[in-house]
Q: What sequence folds into this?
């Protein structure tokens, strides 16, 4: 076995020093962590589950009525375990913060007896699941007075996608 000379050691040291940042760069590219906030993008193979997966309301009344309901959005890894602090992008075709809009999106839980107190969000909106992998989306929508509309609540995180139908019908 041949002994290493000083210039050989120096050459290897320079190679190792140059290799370390390259390795760190690839490690950083392989993670989906948004460093300033600690939020992550759902990894490929994950699943987004929206509960309820659809909501159909039929209202034949002659007056327009405002309703509120909560859609619970959960994110699970490929093994079925909840993933906390996942960044979500949520949209609904006609949702916006205008007071007279058919549909509005809000942060948090709500119901007809417990309407939201926070302001409505623009669509699409950004959201983050809690530490247990759940985000509660409050949806305000109008029914009655002959209103009929149907669209999907779309939820994305990276390449992972799910949707829930909101369908409003006129009639009895």
A:
């Amino acid at each position: 076995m041949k002994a290493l000379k000083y210039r050989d050691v120096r050459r290897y040291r320079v190679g190792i020093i140059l290799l370390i940042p390259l390795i760190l760069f690839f490690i950083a590219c392989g993670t989906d962590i948004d460093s300033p906030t600690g939020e992550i993008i759902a990894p490929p193979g994950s699943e987004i589950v929206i509960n309820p997966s659809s909501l159909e309301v039929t209202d034949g009344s002659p007056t327009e009525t405002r309703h509120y309901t909560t859609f619970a959005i959960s994110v699970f890894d490929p093994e079925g375990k909840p993933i906390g602090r996942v960044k979500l992008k949520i949209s609904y075709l006609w949702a916006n913060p205008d007071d007279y809009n058919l549909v509005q999106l809000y942060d948090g839980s709500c119901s007809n007896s417990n309407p939201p107190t926070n302001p409505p969000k623009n669509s699409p909106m950004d959201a983050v699941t809690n530490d247990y992998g759940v985000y509660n989306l409050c949806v305000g929508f109008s029914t009655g007075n002959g209103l009929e509309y149907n669209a999907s609540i779309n939820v994305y995180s990276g390449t992972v996608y799910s949707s829930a139908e909101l369908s409003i019908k006129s009639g009895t």
About this structure: The longest helix spans residues 6-30. Residues 21-35 have pLDDT under 50 and may be disordered.
